[in-house]
Prior knowledge:
This protein is mainly beta and 378 residues long. It has one domain: Beta Barrel (Porin). The protein has helices spanning 21-51, 155-160, and strands at 52-65, 76-91, 95-104, 107-118, 126-134, 165-175, 178-185, 203-211, 215-228, 237-255, 258-270, 284-296, 300-310, 319-320, 323-324, 330-341, 345-356, 369-377. The strands form 2 sheets. The protein has a 16-stranded antiparallel beta barrel with strand order 1-2-3-4-5-6-7-8-9-10-11-12-13-16-17-18. A hairpin with a 3-residue loop joins strand 12 (284-296) and strand 13 (300-310). The model has no long low-confidence stretch (mean pLDDT 90). Residues 25-52 form a coiled coil. This is Porin. Residues 1-23 are annotated as: Disordered. InterPro entries: Porin_dom_sf, Porin_O/P.
Amino acid sequence: PPPASEPRANAPTVPERSPSIDERLTADEHRVEALEEQNTETKNDLSALKKLRFSGYIQGRYQYQQDLDDSGAGGYSRFGVRRGRLKATYTTDWSQFMLQIDAVPAGVTLRDAEATLFVPGTKQQLSVTLGQMKWPFGYEGPQSSSDREFPERSRVVRNLLPSERDRGAKLNGRYKFLRLAVGIFDGNGTDSGTTQDNDKEKDLIAHLGFDLKWIAGGISGWYGHDLGRLPTDTFRHAYERTRIGADLQAYFDVLPLGGTSIKGEFIAGRTYGAANNATHLDVPAHGWYLLLVQNIGLNDAVAVRYDTFDPRNGQTDVAAGEVPGADNAVDTVGFVVQHHFGENLKVSATYEIPMTHAVAQALDPHDNLFTLQMQARF
C-alpha cells in the first residue's frame, strides 16, 4: 500500500477559543476576592500589632563611695548594671496584658505580671488587676525608675516600701481629677525571698489622689499584719503592719530657664523590713523627703533632694563603740545634674551626702556617694 502522507510542517493550527466576556469577568472577580481576603488578613495582623507595645530601658552605672574612715577601710569603686528592663503590653478595649522582667548580672527576675479587666461601660476609667504589681502607696514608690530624677528612691521609701511590688488584686478608678487605687496584697513584698505567701494574713493598701495638671497629690493608707516572733515571744504573733502617707507635687513655669517642680512626701509606719525579720517587728518609724527640680532648656536639669528617716520614731541615738547605732536617724542631701541626648538617652551625675546622727565618740561615717549613670530607653 502507498505510505501515509506526512503532515506538512507549516500546516495552519486551529486557533483556541477566546474566553467569553462572562468568563473573563468571573476570573477577575475571583482575583479581586483573593486580594480582598489578603487585605483583610493584613489589616487584622496590623490591628493586633498596634495593640502590642514593647518598651524597656537599661541603666549602666559607675559608683564611687569614699572610705568609711581614716584607715581606708570600706568604700568602693565599681561599674554595674542597675536595671535592665523589658516590658510587653497588649491592650484591647476590655483588657490589658502586661509583663515586665529585669535582666541584670545577678539574674533575670519577674518584676510585673498583670492581668487587667477594664470594666465595660466605663471607658477604661475603672479597672481590676490581678497578679504581681506595684503597691498603690504614695508617689515615689509607684513612680518608674526611668522617670525618677535620682538614681534611687529616698531612704524612707526604701525602708517602708522595700519591695515596691507584691502579689494581689487592685481596683483602679478615675473620675475627672480624682484618682483611686485600692488593693489587697500578701503584704511581704517580692523581696521576701519566697514565691508564695508564708501566712494567711492579707494587707489592705489604698491611695486617694487628685491631678490638676499643675498640682497633684494624695493620701495613702496601709493596714495589715506580719507574723513574727520577738525574743520575748513564745510563739509567733501577728504584729500590726501599718503605714500612712501624704504626697504632693507642684509644677511651675515662671523662670526663663525652664520648668520648675517641687515634690514632697511623708510616710509613717509600724513593722517594716524583710519578712520574718524580728529586728523591726512592732517598731514605729517615719521619714520624709523634699525634692526641687529645675529644667534648663529642653535637654538639661538640676535637682536637689533632702530626705530624712528615723528608724525608731525619736528614740535616743546611740553609739556602738566609735560607730553610730544601726537605728540612728539618717539625713541625706543629694545633688544631681542631668542631660538628655534626644528622647532615648539620659546621662546623670549624682552626689549624695548621708549624715548619720552621731553621739559621744561615735562619728558620722564617711559614706558620701557619687553615681554616674547612663540610661537608654525605647
